[in-house]
Structures are given as C-alpha cells and as structure tokens.
Specification:
The complex is a heterotetramer of chains A (about 250), B (about 400), C (about 100) and D (about 180).
Chain A (H helix, E strand, L loop, with lengths): L5 H19 L28 H4 L14 E5 L15 H5 L5 E5 L15 E7 L8 H5 L5 E3 L15 E2 L1 H4 E3 H7 L1 H51 L7 H14 L1
Parallel strand pairs in A: 1-6
Antiparallel strand pairs in A: 1-4, 2-3, 3-5
Chain B lengths: L2 H36 L10 E4 L2 E4 L6 H11 L10 H18 L25 H9 L1 H12 L3 H32 L4 H7 L10 H17 L11 H4 L9 H26 L14 H23 L5 H32 L3 H26 L13
Antiparallel strand pairs in B: 1-2
Helix pairs in contact in B: 1-10, 1-11, 2-10, 3-4, 3-5, 3-10, 5-6, 6-8, 6-12, 8-10, 8-12, 10-11, 12-13
Chain C lengths: L4 H21 L3 H25 L7 H31 L14
Helix pairs in contact in C: 1-2, 2-3
The chains are: A mainly alpha (about 250), B mainly alpha (about 400), C mainly alpha (about 100), D mainly alpha (about 180).
Chain lengths: ~250, ~400, ~100, ~180
C-alpha cells in the first residue's frame, strides 16, 4: 500500500535534485553560454550593426556551429551576382509553408561556372518576420543555393522594411557558410563534389558503354564479315582493323 | 475633507501597492531561474546594470530581467483583433487585476505604523473578511470569460470557458476547506483568525487543519490557473488560452493580476492555516509579524514554482473528476471531523483524549482519501501489445 | 437633504418596473430570466430599506428574509437555465414566440 | 462625498445597468450590464449597513448566477442576434404600458405616505459586536427550520436542474439516430 500522493513527492525529489545539482555539477548543464562580445564597441542603435561579413562573424552572430534561424542565398567564389547558385526555379517559394519567400525570375539567362546558361533571381525577398525557420526551402532546393544562416541580431527600427531581407542582404559566400557551419558545409560540398564526380563517372561510363557497344557491334560485324568472307573467300586476316576505325568515326560523328 | 483619514488610508494601502508588485517582479525572476535550474539550464543571467553605454555589465545573476521585461511590455504595440469587442477587450485585463489587488487589503498584514490606536483605518478588521475575499476573488472568473469572449478567437473562447468551469468547480473545495477554520475560530474576521493561532497554535498542526490546508492549497493552485491545473492557458492545446490575443501592456496587466492573485490566495492560506504573522520572536518585536507573514507567503509561492517544475498538466476530465469526486467529498468529511474533534476536546480536557482524537481523525481522513482515490482511479489494466508477425 | 425611506422605495419601484418591462418585451428566454432576477433584487432592496428605517432593526428580519430570497433565487436560476437548455435542445431556439406547439402544427 | 452623493451614484449605476441589461441586443453585453446592476445594488446594501447581504449579493449573483447565465448563453445560440431578427416580442407595446401602470400603482401609496415616512430616520443601531455573528445566531436559533427547508429546496433544485438538462441530451441522441 503506497502513500497517497507519494508519486508527487517522488517527482519533487527528482526536481529538487536537479535544482541543487545544477549548481554544483557543471556537467549537468545542457546548455552553454554564448560568448558576449566585451572587447568591441557595441553599436548604439540596432540599425548601426555592421553589415560586413567579417564583422558578422564575431561571437555575437554565431552561437554554435549548429544554430540556425533564417535562410540565406549561397554564391561561389567571385562577384556575388556572377556566381549565385540560385536559378530562380521557385520551388522554395512554392514549398514555403508560411509563404515568406518572393522570387522574380530574370528575363535573360546567365552563364556561371562553365555550366549551361540559366535564369537568375531578379528579386529574391524573404520576410523574416513571417519565416518560421522550418528549413523546408533548404530541403527542397535542388541546386544547394539556399541554406540556413545563424545571424540572429536582426533588430531594426523599421518593422516592415527592415525585416524584409532583399536579395543582396541574403547573398552570402560559400566561405562564410564554411565558417558558420563547418561540418554541414563540408558535408554539403562533399556531396556536391561526389554528385558531380558521380555524374562525370556516369557520363564516362555511358561513353565507355557506348564505345564498348560500338566495339562489340563492330567486332560482331567484323566476325560476321570474316565468317562470310571465310566462307566465300579465304582472306580473313586484315578485316577487323579498318572496321574498328570506321566505328570510332561514326561514334564521334554522333 | 478629512485629511487625516486620507492620510491613514494612504498609510494602509500604499505599502500593499508597493510590496506586492515588487514581489511580483522578483517572483518572475525567481520562477525563471528555478524552472531553468530544475531543467538543468542556467536561466536569465545577462541583464543587469549597464556600467557604460558601450558594454561592461554588472549582471547580478540577471536581476535586471524583470525591469527589462517590464520595459519591453510597456513599449510593445497594442494589437486588437479586427472582430474583437474593443470595449471588453480593454476592460478584461483591468477587471482581472482589480479583484486581485482588492483582496490584498483583507490580509492581516500588521504594519508597525498601523498598530497605533489613533489610526482609524484597519482594512483587515472588516467583519466577514474571509467571505469578502472569496466573493471578490470569484469576480476574476468574469474577467477571464470577458477576455476569452471579447477576443473573437476560438482558442480564446475555449480557454475562457475552460477557466470558468475550472474556477467554479475548485471554488467549492476552496471555500469548504476554509469553512473548517472559520467554524473553529467562530469568526470570519481575518485578524481574529490570526489571533486565535498565536503561539504555534497553527491549524496546520491539527489533522483536520492539515487536510484542509492540503485541499485549500490544491484548490488555490487550480483557482489561480497554476500548473498542473493550467489548462486555460495550455500552450500545447490552445496556444495561450484566454490571453492569446493580448499583447503589450494589457498582457502585462493579466500577468500581474495572475501573480497578485497567487500572492493573495497564498496570504489567505497563511492566515487560515499557517498562523498568519506568528513566528519566533514576535512577542518581543511586533514588527516581525509582517516579515514572517511575507516569508510564509514566499515559501508557498516557492512550492507553487517547484510543483510547476515537477508535474505535467492534467486532462480536462481528470481535472473535473478530481474536484468533484475527490476534493469535494473529502472537504465535507473534513468539516464533520473538525466538528467532532472540537466537541470531543471540549468535553474532556485530557492529553490522552486529545492524542486519541488527533490520531483517530488523521486515520479517518487518510483512509477516506485513500478510499476516494481507489474509487476514482481509472481501471487501467496493463496493456498487451500484439505485433505483426 | 438627507436620505429617507422613500428614496429607496422609489428606486426599488423603478428597478422593479425595468425588470417587468424586460420580462414583457423581450423574446429571448434568457433575457426574461434575468429580468425576473432584476425584479427579485428590487424587492430585496425594499426589504433592506424597511429593515434599516423600520422599528425593530435588532431583530434582523430584513437581512434574514433577503438571505432566504437570494438562496431561493439562486435555485430558481439554476432550474430556469436548465429548462432553457432543455427547451433549446428540443426546439433549437430560445425564442419564446416560437414555443407555440400547442397552437399550431 | 457624503451618503447622499453615494446614493445617487449607486442608484444611477443600478438603474442604467438594469436598463442596458433589459434592452441590449447583444446578450453577453446584457449579462455584464446585469452584473453592473448587481454590483450597484450591493453598494446600496452597504450604504444601508447590511454588509453581509452585500457580500452574499456579490458572491451569489455576480459570482454564481452571472456565470450560470453566461454558460446558458454560450450553450444556446444567437449571442448577438441578426439585424433582421426582432428583439422585442409581439406585445411589447402593451407590455410597456402595463409596466408603466404597475410603476404608477406602486408609486402612488409611496408618494402619499412621503410626509409620514420622511421623519422615519434610521435607528442608531450600529451594532457593537459583529453583525455577521448576530445574523449567524439568528439563523441557528429561530430560523433553523427555514434553513433546513432551504437546504432541501436547493438540493431538489440541483437534482431537478441536472435532470432537466440531461433529459434533453437523451432525446437529442434519439433524434440523431433517426
């Protein structure tokens, strides 16, 4: 026969142990304090916060390597708009649950990184007062163009305009991404490289296969010819070599 | 104009308006810290006194947090939903604060400057202070409904209706457990109740007093919408209940009202069961009474915070069942037992008799509680699981 | 000017007639119910006023009778509202003019 | 700020509260106006030195009855009422006439008696002891039977209310299955 309400006391003992223990046992604390920037001069108004990437990388903008809040657009090395990865496919705009992304496609196409020419975003706005940081846009992007930023000091005196991040605010270099989320960025780059390699390999393999198929065809043809010739006449020795070159020529022509 | 009277009134009321709101500010900080520590977090520890405009901060364990919160609340935009009833939306937070503040003056807080014979204002000397307390606390329910209805939001209305059902149900055990003390003292006057418990003669040390105190405390938790009875503002179910649509200063008023109500009802519990201002050294130094009273209130608030960190929220049917099927019969039985114990003690004044009465009353109450618990406990059999082959 | 009994009596009469007006002129059963409450309260005010200005205030007849009236009124409200809800469940309306099944149908 | 001013303010509060409660189209507004009326009346009771009655007034009316009515309103429909929906009943004109007539009938004797009752000043009966205590003793000594009958009545009313409200539910279930 247990004591009436004994479970409550048992639970209270547990919480009391946690309460007292957290003061003596630092291992219990699951959260870490973020570094407070004490050496730098703090801006006087919220709007005066530095916008340069180098300054954004101070301790106040990056809490840990795993924190994230709002999306940003990635670009590769070079001028931001010349190397932006986004092709304005608008998948993220459609998938966004609170509909906080607004994209306008460019009229012209632009070539970047030696790839085929594609569209680029003429307008790319994210209303961070609407965004709920669900990261779905990151999941659906086929071009690895949108990833999560960890900058949190977004306070602004202008509630409507200031919280609407424009394309140029959102553009961040891949190096910045590597700095704020090193592991994730490395994994993403590796995956992109792997995919690229796999694509190349596949292409190569396909070529090889084609080549092989052509060779096999040529061989078979040659064999058939040889057989025919052997049957009809007795001159089989020189036949394969010219047919092989013919097959290669045909392949190049395709 | 009777300036002396006005001065006396100010002397009696201004301390209440200073002490309790400042206690509220401190409690919000203590609560956040304590809950954080219970969950192995650190809690607010940054906001303090800024030493220079350019950084440098005397953090003082984050004691600046209440001030920062207050300033934030004051400067936030006041948002009223389009379909809302603007007048009621404005009145509701005010109406929730007024009863809570009003009942504070029924607490027997004997400030040293009020003890003089020449002072004519003694709010707590009001006859029927206890019943006044319950009558005015009951008005809080209306404010909650008003907020829920005026917001024109389904979640708000649900929260409001939940709050009404809960507050009406738990008011009955609350009043019935207080009736025991009123019955024994023979007065509704808070000061007389406090006097009857002078010198460690606290009612919580009696078996019926203990039972009544436990029932009172549980009902008080429900009455002030504290966890585990915080269904009207259950975040996981109905966003924030009746104050979903409140922001800025109106929300702050609700918040303040809720905490002041907590202090008031804890103060009543202290008055009825914990000997009001009684404690060591009050005979020599009468001003210690206020200190002891406030200290006891703080301890009860601490237990409330501790319980909030411990217990999960109840389901609605469990909540109602607990009030009507467990607390109500037990509190009625408690009234009978208190009456019998009092008469038995009056009939023969012996230590042995009082000990026997004491033990018997305790056993009966515990057995009754146990029986009620057994009857009410849902018959849950151990589940059997079937897995697909 | 000092307060006399007739001040309270006239006030009570005004309140009673407001209640009467509500009971006669509204269609909603709930409104009629609380009009009745207004009338009861006006009567209570008379009891207390007569007790205060009467001959034997120490007998406390006025407050006692008022206490009983309040208790009975509470019972009346409980039963009345239960009936309103029962009627609403049956007719899907609390409009008193539509509750005329004996007349038509 | 003497008694007379207090009386006029409280009288105005209760009359306006009652009028709004009776005439307001929005039922929830009406209930809150009714509560204002109850509060004004409690103030008048306090003015007449019946403090216990004032508390009971607040406890029972503002606390219990108001909430009960709110529950009833939330359980039935038409909180605000459409504009096309008539608020007043068919015979409202004659109702108003009758109410006015009753008012005059009540008022006539009072006005005639004014010279008589004007001298009836309140007795100085400020009780030395607690008037609540007096009331309690009176309730137990001569009125114990009344109290018991009242308790019986309240129990009966409670059971009746529960039965009436639940009977409806049973029939509703029957309707739904048809």
């Amino acid at each position: 026969m247990s004591l009436l309400g004994g479970g409550i006391f048992k639970g209270m003992a547990v919480t009391l142990r946690n309460f007292v223990g957290s003061y003596f046992d630092k291992e219990r604390l699951t959260t870490k304090e973020y570094a407070w920037r004490t050496d730098d001069k703090l801006p006087e108004r919220a709007g005066d916060y530095p916008k340069e990437e180098a300054e954004q990388l101070s301790d106040t903008t990056t809490v840990t390597h795993y924190s994230r809040n709002f999306p940003m657009l990635l670009h590769d090395e070079g001028e931001p708009m010349d190397t932006v990865r986004c092709v304005a496919c608008q998948i993220c705009e459609r998938e966004c649950p609170p509909q906080c992304i607004y994209i306008e496609k460019s009229k012209d196409k632009m070539e970047r990184g030696g790839n085929k020419a594609q569209f680029y975003p003429a307008t790319f706005d994210i209303d961070v007062s609407v965004c709920m940081s669900c990261q779905i846009c990151v999941e659906v992007c086929p071009f690895d163009a949108i990833v999560m930023n960890s900058q949190f000091e977004l306070s602004t005196p202008d509630r409507f305009g200031g919280l609407l991040l424009r394309r140029d605010d959102l553009l961040k270099s891949n190096d910045y991404y590597h700095k704020i989320h090193p592991e994730e960025a490395a994994a993403r780059d590796k995956r992109i490289a792997d995919e690229k390699a796999a694509k190349e390999a596949k292409k190569k393999a396909a070529e090889e296969a084609k080549k092989k198929a052509a060779e096999a065809k040529a061989k078979a043809e040659a064999e058939a010819k040889a057989k025919e010739e052997a049957e009809s006449a007795e001159k089989p020795a020189e036949a394969p070599a010219p047919t092989h070159t013919d097959a290669k020529k045909e392949d190049n022509g395709e | 104009m009777n300036w002396e009277l006005i001065g006396d009134i100010l002397l009696a009321t201004v301390p209440l308006l200073v002490i309790f709101p400042s206690m509220f500010a401190l409690t919000t900080w203590v609560e956040r810290k304590a809950l954080a520590r219970i969950q192995n977090r650190i809690g607010p520890n940054k906001v303090g006194v800024p030493l220079t405009p350019y950084g440098g901060n005397l953090s003082l364990f984050g004691l600046g947090q209440p001030a920062a919160d207050g300033i934030k609340m004051l400067f936030k935009e006041n948002i009223v939903p389009t379909g809302a009833d603007r007048l009621f939306h404005l009145l509701a937070p005010i109406l929730s604060l007024i009863p809570a503040m009003l009942v504070l003056c029924f607490l027997p807080l004997e400030f040293p400057w009020l003890n003089g014979e020449q002072n004519s204002v003694k709010a707590f000397m009001l006859d029927g202070a206890v019943i006044f307390f319950f009558a005015i606390t009951g008005l809080n329910t209306l404010a909650v409904f008003m907020a829920g209805w005026a917001s024109r939001n389904k979640y708000s209305l649900l929260g409001g209706m939940r709050a009404i059902a809960q507050m009406v149900s738990y008011e009955i055990p609350l009043v019935l457990s207080a009736v025991v003390v009123v019955m024994i003292v023979g007065s509704l006057n808070a000061a007389e109740i406090a006097e009857a418990q002078a010198g460690w003669n606290w009612y919580v040390f009696q078996p019926w007093g203990l039972a009544a105190f436990v029932i009172f405390f549980i009902a008080a938790l429900a009455e002030t919408n504290r966890s585990p009875f915080d269904l009207p503002e259950a975040e996981s179910e109905i966003i924030a209940g009746y104050f979903t649509e409140y922001s800025g200063f109106k929300f702050a008023l609700f918040f303040l009202g809720e905490y002041i109500a907590m202090f008031a009802i804890s103060g009543l519990a202290v008055t009825l069961f914990l000997g009001a201002g009684g404690g060591p050294g009050v005979e020599a130094l009468p001003w210690l009474k206020v200190i002891w009273f406030l200290a006891k209130v703080c301890i009860l608030i601490g237990v409330m915070i501790w319980l909030r960190g411990t217990l999960p929220r109840l389901r609605v049917d469990q909540l109602m069942g607990f009030a009507w099927k467990f607390l109500l019969p037990l509190s009625i039985l408690n009234i009978f037992i208190a009456g019998f114990a009092w008469h038995a003690k009056k009939a023969n004044e012996g230590t042995a008799v009082s000990v026997i009465v004491w033990v018997a009353a305790l056993i009966i109450l515990y057995a009754a509680a146990k029986g009620l618990d057994h009857v009410n406990r849902a018959k849950v059999k151990p589940r059997t699981y079937q897995y697909g082959e | 000017m000092t307060l006399a009994l007739h001040h309270y009596l006239i006030l009570a009469a005004v309140l009673f007639c407001i209640g009467l007006l509500g009971a006669f002129s509204r269609r909603n059963a709930v409104v009629v119910l609380f009009s009745v409450e207004i009338m009861l309260n006006a009567a209570n005010l008379n009891f207390i006023a007569f007790w205060r200005f009467g001959t034997n205030p120490e007998l406390l007849h006025g407050p006692l009778f008022t206490l009983f009236t309040i208790a009975v009124a509470a019972a009346e409200v409980a039963v009345g509202l239960a009936l309103v809800i029962a009627v609403y469940r049956h007719f899907r309306s609390v409009d008193l003019e539509s509750l005329d099944t004996l007349k038509e149908e | 700020m003497n008694e007379v001013t207090a009386f006029w303010i409280l009288a105005a509060i209760s009359v306006i509260g009652a009028l709004v409660a009776v005439r307001k189209r929005n039922l929830v507004h009406g209930v809150f106006a009714l509560l204002v009326f109850f509060a004004g009346l409690a103030g008048l009771f306090l003015l007449l030195l019946a403090e216990f009655i004032a508390v009971v007034q607040i406890l029972v009316y503002a606390g219990a009855v108001g909430i009960l009515i709110l529950f009833a309103i939330m359980l039935t429909d038409r909180v605000t009422g459409k504009d096309a929906f008539r608020v007043t009943s068919r015979g409202s004109f004659w109702g108003a006439i009758i109410a006015l007539a009753v008012f005059l009938v009540i008022l006539l004797p009072t006005i005639r008696e004014i010279p008589l009752i004007e001298n009836a000043t309140p007795k100085d009966m400020i009780v030395e002891q607690s008037s609540v205590k007096e009331l309690g003793t009176k309730l137990i000594e001569p009125y114990i039977v009344t109290i018991e009958v009242l308790a019986l009545l309240l129990t009966a009313a409670l059971i009746g209310a529960v039965t009436a409200a639940q009977g409806g539910r049973a029939s509703e279930k029957g309707e739904n299955t048809e």
